[in-house]
Amino acid sequence: MTEAAQFDCRTGRMAGRLDGRSTTARRVRDLAATYTAAMGGGEGLTAIDRENILKAAQLTVAAEDMRRRSLKGEEIDLASLIKLENLAARAVRALNLGVKRKAPAASLQDYLRSKAAENAA
């Protein structure tokens, strides 16, 4: 997972050098889509939100992969596994998935249109 990748929340596709057909890329894409849906969908998200979603998904997959390798009996540094899992958990927690998000504020044009409609009525 060292290759650069971008997840587009609007299309649900990966872009970049990470091969989107690999199991790792599919897992990142699935987690990113899940986090995106939990945050209210791609349209209302900022670029920072999208970047944080991708980071959380990538860290989670990296932690899952390291744990899987550990369970298979491969020699890994347990301190690194614990740190990576903690970092992934903090990245997911930073998304505030349980918090209700406000609907985006109306644009100035929409506001002026609604005021004009109220005055006309």
Mean pLDDT, nearest integer? Answer: 83
Helical fraction: 55-70%
Radius of gyration computed on alpha carbons: 19 Å
The low-pLDDT segments are: none
Question: Going across the major beta sheet, what is the strand order?
Answer: 1-2
Instruction: Give the distance, in angstroms, between the N- and C-terminal Cα atoms.
Output: 59 Å
Helix and strand pattern: EEHHHH
- Any idea what the shape is? elongated
How many helical stretches? Answer: 4
Number of domains: 1
Oligomeric organization of the protein chains: single chain
Strand content: 5-15%
Largest beta-sheet details: 2 strands, antiparallel
Instruction: Give the total of beta strands.
Output: 2
| Class by alpha and beta content | mainly alpha
Supply database-style keywords.
121 residues, 4 helices, 2 strands, mainly alpha, elongated
How would you describe this protein?
This protein has 4 helices and 2 strands; from the N terminus they run ββαααα. It has one domain (5-120). Helix 1 crosses helix 2 (47-71) and helix 2 packs antiparallel against helix 3. The chain has 121 residues and is mostly helical. The chain is elongated. The model has no long low-confidence stretch (mean pLDDT 83). A two-stranded antiparallel ribbon has the order 1-2. A hairpin with a 4-residue loop joins strand 1 (5-8) and strand 2 (13-16). The chain has helices spanning 23-38, 47-71, 78-94, 108-120, and strands at 5-8, 13-16.
